[in-house]
Write a structure and sequence with these properties.
Elements lengths: L19 E6 L6 H15 L6 E6 L5 H8 L5 E4 L16 H6 L4 E4 L2 H6 L4 H13 L3 E6 L3 H5 L3 H12 L10 E4 L13 H19 L8 E4 L4 H8 L6 E4 L6 H9 L2
Parallel strand pairs: 1-2, 1-8, 2-3, 3-4, 4-5, 5-6, 6-7, 7-8
Helix pairs in contact: 1-2, 1-10, 5-7, 7-8, 9-10
Bound molecules: 2-phosphoglycolic acid.
2-phosphoglycolic acid binds next to strand 8.
Length: 264
């Protein structure tokens, strides 16, 4: 006898097109040769059977162009890992949102905890960067997340709410931004929150962001990031309120990243 699923819960968590977003943050890894090989492998995987997924690769700035060549003609999208709040100017070493756009990027990560910690970026800075991204026609992936000490102190939700308060610019509207919940203690550590804690924080983020932007919860996408790998991707992606994943270390291995994509 065929087993009929009595009820399929379709929880609208993600992009307007209903697709989960799988983003690979390569951080400061690779070179022209490895970036080409990795991007080509992901592009050829994406050419397989259609999946309800949007794939984004975020290479380091100098490797965006080789990655763009490698994914040309595929559905794989590109993103930067940061951008400056100004469109141009005397800012040695910085990269603007219009530059990323001109290279074919669709997305840009803003407010990653490594920028908040190592470059002392405040949520105000992140909000200005996200505004610049939106003005340039890029979709900012705005990262928020608490430290271990903040979680232990029972402050995770208030810290994240305060980050959202300043990191989301007024120009945020339906479909032009994405949030990513990345607990700092889960990044690169092999540790992940429980499914219950992820669901609770995503519900919190959705409600805070909805209130602030005037959007409905279902019109906002919140990714989870922090030690996502092939072995836990399916479970994480099935948690209510998770619109996709932002993957660091595991996005550097083509096979592992493609398994994560296939988990949607
Ligand atoms: P990780 O990094 O997957 O290596 O933990 C995630 C991130 O920093 O975006």
């Amino acid at each position: 006898m065929a087993i009929v699923k009595p009820f399929l819960v379709v929880y609208k968590t993600t992009m307007e097109n209903g697709k989960k977003l799988i983003a690979g943050n390569w951080k400061m890894h690779g070179d022209a040769e490895t970036a080409t090989a990795l991007a080509k492998a992901v592009a050829s995987f994406s050419a397989g059977p259609p999946m309800a997924v949007e794939i984004v690769l975020c290479p380091p700035f100098p490797l965006i162009q080789v990655a763009a060549q490698a994914v040309a003609g595929s559905t794989v999208k590109l993103g930067g890992q940061d951008c400056h709040a100004e469109a141009e100017g005397a800012h040695t070493g910085d990269v603007s949102a219009p530059m990323l756009k001109s290279l074919g990027c669709t997305y840009v990560i803003t407010g990653h905890s490594e920028r908040r910690i190592h470059h002392r970026e405040t949520s105000g800075d992140v909000g200005r960067k996200a505004a610049a991204a939106i003005a340039a026609g890029l979709v900012p992936i705005i990262c928020v997340g608490e430290t271990q000490a903040e979680r232990d102190g029972g402050k995770a939700e208030s810290v994240v709410a305060a980050q959202i308060g300043e990191s989301l610019p007024k120009s945020c509207s339906k479909g032009n931004f994405v949030l990513a919940y990345e607990p700092v203690w889960a990044i690169g550590s092999g540790k992940t929150p429980t499914a219950h804690d992820i669901a609770a924080m995503h519900a919190h983020i959705l409600s805070v962001a909805a209130k602030q932007t005037g959007l409905a919860n279902g019109e906002i996408s919140v990714l989870y990031g922090g030690s996502v790998k092939a072995a836990n991707a399916k479970e994480i992606l099935s948690i209510e309120g998770v619109g996709g994943v932002l993957v660091g270390g595991a996005s550097l291995k083509a096979e592992e990243f493609c398994k994560i994509i296939a988990s949607t």
